[in-house]
Amino acid sequence: MENLKELNMSFNKLGYIHERGFKNLKNLRVLNMENNRLVKFGTLLFQSLTNLEILDLSSNQLDMVLNLEAFEGMVRLKNFNLKSNKIRLINKDAFHNLKDLKTLNLGFNLIEKILPEYFSNCKYLSELYLNNNLIKEIDPFSFRENRTLSSLHLNNNKLRKLEKNLFKSITYLRELNLSQNMIQILHTDTFVNMDYLVLLELSFN
Length: 205
What we know:
By secondary structure, the protein is mainly beta. It has strands spanning 6-8, 30-32, 54-56, 64-65, 79-81, 89-90, 103-105, 113-114, 127-129, 137-138, 151-153, 161-162, 175-177, 185-186, 199-201. The mean pLDDT is 93.
């Protein structure tokens, strides 16, 4: 199956895939494993998928995003969906090699904190979904390297305040959703330099 471009394994009962399971699928562009029972995967599972552009691991049972080696081979990945898992912890190097990533969905997980290391190497990231988590704290430098970000979703979290420099670097942001948090403090400079912003959602705080 060396010429296979798209593989759909969604809506099954897969709990584990051998780390050499995709070894000969070097031309694969789209891999959908949505809605299975995956709890973890071997660190070599995706290493041979050097042409993969879309990976959907949403609606599984993953409880953490693994280390640097886990996604090392996917250098052309553009769309990564990890929505609706049980992710609490993100390894600081997890997305380090995903330099072409455009869309990352981590919504509907159990993440409590966002650190600068998480997305620092995803310099072409355009859409980031962190909605419906348990986020209480975002380091003020978390998005410093994501200058191309145009859509950021932080709604339905536990945020009480926003640091004044949090969005300073993402000047091309067009859509920002902060609704349904617990925000009580907004600094005067929170939204400074956001000249391209067309939608700001702050309802239900």
